[in-house]
Amino acid sequence: MAKNTSIDLRNLVFYQMFIRQFSPTHDFKGALKKLDQIKSLHADVIQLLPIHPIGKLNRKGTMGSPYSISNYYEINPDLGTLRDFQNFLNEAHKRDLKVIIDIVFNHTSHDAVYSKTHPDWYFHKPDGSFANRVGDWWDITDFQFEDNVPLENELINVLRYWTGFGVDGFRCDVAPLLPLSFWKRARQELTALNPDLIYVSESVHLSFIKYLRDLGYDAYSDSEIYRVFDICYDYDIVDDFYQYFKGKGNLQKWVDDLMRQESTYPKNYIKLRFIENHDMERLAKFLTTEAQLRNANALIFLLKGCPFIYNGQECGLKEKPDLFEIDEIDWKDYNKAGIVDIIKQMGELRKKLGFVNWVMNVRTLSPDVLEIKYEKEGMTVFGIINLGEKPQTVDIQFGGINYLDHQKVEKGLHEVTEPIVLVI
Question: Is the pTM for the entire model greater than 0.85?
Answer without folding.
Answer: yes
